[in-house]
Design brief:
The chain is of the alpha+beta class. It has one domain: Nucleoside Triphosphate Pyrophosphohydrolase (Alpha-Beta Complex), CATH 3.90.79.10. Helices cover about 20% and strands about 40% of the residues. The protein is built from two helices and seven strands. Strands 1, 2, 3, 4, 5, 6 and 7 form a seven-stranded mixed β-sheet that branches. It is globular. It starts with a strand and ends with a helix. The mean pLDDT is about 95.
């Protein structure tokens, strides 16, 4: 079975994180952390900066690696390297998503893309302190 390697940005702002609603595809309408595929000639960091630029026409700063999530979809295996980031520019234009939201990590009732459920759970257990 094919493995797809992607990167994802958990973009923080104050106590909230950015999520984006898928515009098209199998998971249209579901919420995810932005990012995308890593090309053969790229590092994870280069791919994440490029993907955020393509998706939102904005720049990020990658602050730290969070984790690698593996998720088995019916037709492929997803390997997603996740990074905690901040925006360099507040200006954003939606090119690949229908909406964005700033949420508290504890917010419930988010209709997540399946693999991103693992990302938010990892984020909450790694970053959030009560």
């Amino acid at each position: 079975m094919k493995t797809i390697h992607v990167v994802a940005a958990i973009i923080e702002k104050e106590d909230k994180i950015l999520i984006a609603q898928r515009l098209k595809g199998e998971h249209q309408g579901l919420w995810e952390f932005p990012g995308g595929k890593v090309e053969d000639n790229e590092t994870n960091e280069q791919a994440l900066i490029r993907e955020i630029k393509e998706e939102f026409e904005t720049d990020i700063q990658i602050n730290t690696y969070l984790s690698t999530i593996e998720y088995q979809y019916p037709h492929f295996n997803l390997v997603m390297d996740c990074y905690i980031c901040t925006l360099i520019s507040e200006s954003m234009h939606l090119n690949d998503h229908s909406a964005i939201r700033w949420i508290y990590p504890q917010d419930a009732n988010i209709n997540w893309v399946p693999a991103d459920v693992l990302v938010i759970e990892t984020y909450k257990s790694s970053v959030i302190t009560d």
